[in-house]
Specification:
Length: 392
């Protein structure tokens, strides 16, 4: 058994909490070196009291002061700012980094972990969507190890041959089949989607997740981002990745081989399974997840997604096929549009409409430099915000 020194970026989020839940079950294996959060200072303080990390990080000065006050009688040192996120992701004493910040804010710390050659448990899919080429390059150059946390990609990782060379043909792999639950609006009459509320959109039938990713599940943009994520993680072309709706969320994804075999990974829909898999890899540890009871489930069903119902999925394929910076533009526009929907500034169908207009305007830009991508991310956000202002 290898002891593991962990930094958890985004410890106060859904993935962070689930990670600490698994870590708490195996105190002999894991030492928590750093925990980070953003707004939930009290939760972060409670986590620090339980796991006794050397560092705790928040990005805002006032919140850092509050956290220092809450942790005054402990050994935990409170650091502040975006640079501090990069620092705790690359500390020499840390070997494993859980990258679970939501959105584009997760990119720089994940890159820092890659450059420092860490074992990265990657939940923040936006890192790959925004800057996949640069991130994968940093992983290779830094000698980092990448283990996917996203349940679909973790499933694909488990169904791929080991070691996977990055070449489908070498291993006789034909396609990746990514499963999707279809979210809360899978069977709702399409004409009624214009009036759905944020609360209806975040009420996911199978998973409890952060609000942004829950809306992404309703629009199936989440699956679209995952198609792009799979492209980078497994070196798969758009036409080698198929999305299959599977409402029960038991089969988390599949790999199809040339001889007709399809390998699948099944488990209850609980993120502690992929988290425990990646934390312990190549060992296996208990995750606290109930055992799968297939007879009780009775049926597993599959359908093809309808892109009239889920236009965001088609937009993601379009961005992947366009290549260059199109996925960066899509991801940035999506973050802004989803927030506007959550704030009730735009109706649900306007999310996809806004993304399409943003891709039309900015989607054909090249992606030569990381700095240019970050600038384009900002430009896409500003353009999307301007489009949204027209709705007001
Ligand atoms: P949450 O919104 O629950 O948590 C996000 C975390 O990031 C919190 O710790 C939050 O801090 C922190 N954070 C937010 N904004 C910033 C910022 N600007 N700078 C620094 N930290 C910040 O999200 P999830 O845990 O659901 O998702 C995390 C990532 O994992 C996402 O990329 C998501 O796509 C991916 N993922 C999630 C899955 C899930 O089941 N939840 C499944 C697969 C992937 P605070 O809460 O203190 O404000
Ligand atoms: Mg997923």
């Amino acid at each position: 058994m290898i002891r593991c020194n962990l930094t958890i970026l985004g410890a106060t989020g859904t993935i962070g909490i689930n990670t600490l839940d698994v870590v708490a079950m195996h105190p002999e294996r894991y030492t928590v070196v750093a925990l980070t959060g953003q707004n939930q200072v009290e939760r972060l303080a409670t986590q620090c009291r339980q796991f006794k990390p050397r560092y705790a990080v928040v990005t805002d000065t006032a919140r850092a002061q509050e956290l220092r006050h809450l942790l005054a009688d402990t050994e935990t040192e409170v650091l502040c700012g975006e640079r501090a996120l990069e620092e705790v992701a690359s500390l020499p004493e840390v070997d494993t980094v859980m990258a679970a910040i939501v959105g584009a804010a997760g990119l720089k710390p994940a890159l820092a972990a890659a450059r420092a050659g860490k074992r990265i448990l990657l939940a923040n899919k936006e890192t790959l969507v925004m800057a996949g080429r640069f991130f994968m390059q940093a992983v290779r150059r830094g000698g980092a190890t990448l283990l996917p946390i996203d349940s679909e990609h973790n499933a694909v990782f488990q169904c791929m041959p080991e070691p996977y060379s990055g070449d489908f043909a070498t291993h006789g792999v034909r396609r990746i089949l990514l499963t999707a639950s279809g979210g809360p609006f899978r069977t709702r009459p399409i004409e009624t989607l214009a009036t759905v509320t944020p609360d209806e959109a975040v009420a996911h039938p199978n998973w409890v997740m952060g609000r942004k990713i829950s809306v992404d599940s309703a629009t199936m943009m989440n699956k679209g981002l995952e198609v792009i994520e799979a492209h980078w993680l497994f070196n798969a072309r758009a036409d080698q990745i198929e999305v299959v709706i599977h409402p029960q969320s038991i089969v988390h994804s599949m790999v199809e081989y040339m001889d007709g075999s399809v390998l699948a990974q099944l488990s209850n829909p609980d993120m502690r399974t992929p988290i425990a898999h990646a934390l312990a890899y190549p060992d296996r540890i208990e995750a606290g997840v109930p055992w799968l009871d297939l007879p009780r489930l009775g049926q597993l069903s599959f359908e093809t997604p309808d892109t009239r119902r889920f236009p965001c999925l088609a937009l993601a394929y379009r961005a992947l096929e366009t290549g260059g910076a199109a996925p960066t533009v899509l991801n940035a526009a999506n973050e802004v549009a989803v927030q506007a929907f959550l704030d009730r500034r735009i109706p649900y169908p306007a999310i996809a409409q806004t993304l399409e207009r943003c891709l039309d305007r900015l989607g054909d830009r090249p992606a030569e430099e990381l700095d240019a991508l970050v600038a384009l991310d900002q430009e896409s956000r500003a353009y999307t915000a301007a489009l949204i202002a027209q709705h007001a």
